[in-house]
Each structure stands twice: as C-alpha cells, then as structure tokens.
Design a protein that fits this description.
349 residues; 60s Ribosomal Protein L30, Chain: A; Phosphoribosyl-aminoimidazole Synthetase, Chain A, domain 2; four-stranded mixed β-sheet
C-alpha cells in the first residue's frame, strides 16, 4: 500500500494554480505603491484640484476670470535613455524631476502657465521603493513649477521590460491668453539671441553619450573637470526655466523662446523663425561645459554632430529686439542667471 500525506498533496496542487502574481503582476505591490505616493501627489494640490487619488480621472476646475480668450496648451514627453544611467547608478530620485521640468519648459516657451501634470510609469516588475522615489521627484518639480500632480498610471508588464528597469512619460497641461501666445511671428532681421545656461545634458543625447563614454569610462570614474563622478554628471537634473520665463515675458517684449532639447540650438530655435530668416550663432562666445568636451573627445565626434545632438551648455534662448538686450541681461542677472548674447537673426532661408 502506498502511503501519502494529504496535506502535502494539497500544497502541491495549490502550487500549480496560476495566479496573476506568479504570471508576473503583483497587485499588492501596486496597492502599496499607491499608499506611499498619495502624500506626494496631495502636496502639489491647490484649490483647483477636485479629485482625490484613486478616482478614475483627475478633475481640475479652471479659473478663467483672468482670461478673455483662454487657450489650453499641452505637451507630452519622456526621459529617454537617461533612464539607463539611473538604473546603473541605482538612483531614482532625479528622473521624475527631469520629466516634469522638461514638459513645463516646453509649454512655458509658448507663453503658457502650467496647470497640472499626469504621469505614466511602467515596470517589468514593480518595485514600490523605486516608484516612490520617482514619484517623489514628480511632486518636488510640480511644487517648484506651481502645477498639480493630479493623476497617473503605474503599470507592471513582465516580459516587456527587464526586471529592475522601467519607462516613463508625462503630460503637462497649461493655459495662456490667446493674444499672448509666443509664436515668434514678430521676429525680424537684427534681433538678438540671448542664451541661458543648461544644467548639463538635460534629457537629450544620451544614446550617443552612452555609446562613446561607457566604452571608455565607468560611471563611478572621477574625470578631471567634473565636480563629481561621471554618473553624477549624467544625472544632473534637467533645469526648469519657468520662473525665469514668467518674469521676462511680464517685464519685456520677448518675441520668442526656444527650449533647447533634441536637435540642438539651431534645430529648436528654427521652430519659431519666420521662413525668410535664419540664425547666426556665435559659437565661440561661451565656454562649452566639460561633459560635452569629454563626449566629443571620447567618440571623435565632429562639431556639426555635437551641435545637432546636444544643447552644449545653452538650455533656453530668448529672441528680443536689440534695444531690449541689456534689459533682458540685467533682469535675468537679478534672478541669478548668467545670460549672454549667443547670436542674431539674419536674412535667409
């Protein structure tokens, strides 16, 4: 006669049961993440936010009393392969700030005030500790940019992302008076370009930078000219220019702003130029930050390619009439910025 333990049999049969968790999706981890992040999101709320975390949608009550013809402005973006640096450094408290600041800059240069932000965060395997750090970063940047984090989605998708990795995107919505939308339509020959320093690479050019740098250096290396390790430098937070833009457009007749992201100084500023004009950039007028010199040397990259891919130390450009040049420089300097004239508008396509 065969002897068997019925309790062991029950355990064995239960182990064969297919559940969502052993398929790779942990609902409990999702609930734990939501519990942790509620306070971060609520710290960004203002009187216009009507919904609580956990509802099926985010509700934002518009105050239109200051507008005659209000226009909503929106933008969506990601952080790109800068995330690979965050994974390698196991540092997740900066990339959320990168994403918010990038999105805010994109609508601020159109003249818009940011209202609210929504995020999408996808993991191969959800890690509540990492998610908490990322979303804390969202909340820090939202508070700094006077906008509310009113909702988002955190997804766990085994098989689509590797364990330990994630991706993210964000959507910003803002508002501007229709007559005050900054399109660059009044830009003309002789106008000057005033550049404002970036805080490093921001969120663009990382695929090229990783390719050339990581063949030669480790992220823990301390390279001459950098204030910290290479990894520290590559994780510098994408700078927000919202407060600077807000002051400049209030006090001075700014004709246009460009946020310098993928495409570089020329590619992004061309977006706001009328068809019959082009840019004359004074490339020698500012010191290129060390990180870009290291990248160029490591990959033997041409000047033309560097200018097309990276911001090269200029994160924002204001286009103004020559008569306002000194006013912009003085006002920005009072805000602890370091503006400089980096070019002019000239005839040509």
């Amino acid at each position: 006669m065969l002897n068997f333990n019925p309790y062991l049999l029950i355990i064995w049969i239960a182990s064969l049961e297919t559940t969502y968790k052993n398929a790779g999706v942990d609902i409990d981890a999702g609930n734990e993440t939501v519990r942790r992040i509620k306070s971060f999101a609520k710290s960004t709320f203002n009187k216009n936010v009507l919904s609580d975390i956990g509802m099926f949608g985010g509700f934002y009550e518009l105050d239109l009393t200051k507008y005659k013809k209000p226009v909503l402005v929106s933008s969506v973006d990601g952080v790109g392969t800068k995330l690979k640096i965050a994974f390698a450094m196991n540092r997740h408290d900066t990339v959320g700030q990168d994403l918010v600041n990038h999105c805010v800059n994109d609508i601020a240069v159109c003249g818009a005030k940011p209202l609210y932000f929504l995020d999408y965060l996808a993991f191969g395997k959800l890690n509540p500790d990492k998610a908490e750090k990322i979303i804390e970063g969202f909340s820090i940047a939202c508070r700094e940019n006077d906008c509310a984090l009113i909702g988002g989605e955190t997804a766990e998708m085994p098989g689509l992302y590797s364990n330990g990795e994630y991706d993210m995107s964000g959507t910003i919505v803002g508002i501007v008076e229709k007559s005050k939308v900054l399109k660059g339509k009044n830009i003309k020959k002789g106008d000057v370009l005033i550049g404002f320093p970036s805080n490093g690479m921001h969120t663009n050019g990382y695929s090229l930078a990783r390719k050339v740098l990581l063949d030669k250096y480790k992220l823990t290396d301390k390279i001459e000219g950098l204030s910290g390790t290479l990894g520290d430098e590559l994780l510098r937070i994408h700078k927000s220019y919202y407060k600077l833009i807000k002051v400049l457009k209030k006090e001075i007749k700014i004709k246009g702003f460009s946020h310098i992201t993928g495409g570089g100084i020329v590619g992004n500023t061309n977006r706001i130029l009328p068809d019959n004009l082009k840019l004359n950039i004074f490339w020698s007028k500012w010191e290129i930050p060390t990180i870009f010199k290291i990248i160029q040397a490591a990959g033997s990259i041409s000047d033309a390619e560097m200018r097309k891919v990276f911001n090269l130390g200029i994160g924002l450009i204001a286009v103004v009439s020559r008569e306002y040049k000194h006013e912009v420089i003085n006002l920005a300097s009072e805000l602890n910025e370091h503006p400089l004239v980096i070019g002019e508008v000239v005839p040509g396509k």
